[in-house]
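User: Please predict structures.

Assistant: First:
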Amino acid sequence: MILLFLACSTPTPGPARSAPIQARQAIASDVQAAHRLRMEGDRPGALAAYEAAIARDPDDLLARLAVGELLRSEGRWEDALPHLRRAAELAPQSPVPHEHLAVCLHELARHEEAREALDRAEALGSDQIGVLGPVIRR
């Protein structure tokens, strides 16, 4: 999970970047609490903390990606999809959100969209193509 966030280090674009420092600190605190809760096995608590961060800033990349990944890992693909799409929009030059989006779309049997997301991840230098490609592109 930590690697997920390190690999997706594109700065948050738009208004969030210029948000007041206190607001950004509150969002970071929500995201850190969510990570801790998830590591402790409290998935509902983690989801609530991620959603609190998103409520403060709907364009917070890490919160969007994390909540999408959490929902996806629980098999809640329809719920995860808007978060993963938004993460891909927020970090168009990072392969990580596109990889997660491709997996989610594949699980929803939206195979053409999944291949497109995977192609985008590959064009951005994804190191997961060897693992994801054979499954999604078949």
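Second:
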Amino acid sequence: MSTLNDADRREYYRIEDLIALEITPLRASEAATSEVLQDASPLFNLLSELHLSEFESQHLLRQISERDRTVSSYLKTLNKRVDLLSQIVAQTVLGQIGELQPVTLSEGGIEFHHPHPYPTDS
């Protein structure tokens, strides 16, 4: 079995994607508090909860589908409606934050382009 060299390993742990990115610079006094890790976007939090809820209920929907196809079809229709509503909310969030932008996530952090440069290690 071959092992990855250092350059390949660094590339292996990189994830490139287009995301909605909202950046809020912190003062040093704010960065020292434990509240820094709390997300200030209620819409984003709701979308995250919605996604988690759907993921957690998938096995239940499969079980219902095995027992009652009519109920399963109805629940799938309701699920599609909820998905459409969540897409509307996501588009609303994008309208507030701005266009999707390319980012690279890695073990070392996040790389993105911003119109106002931030000092390294800030």
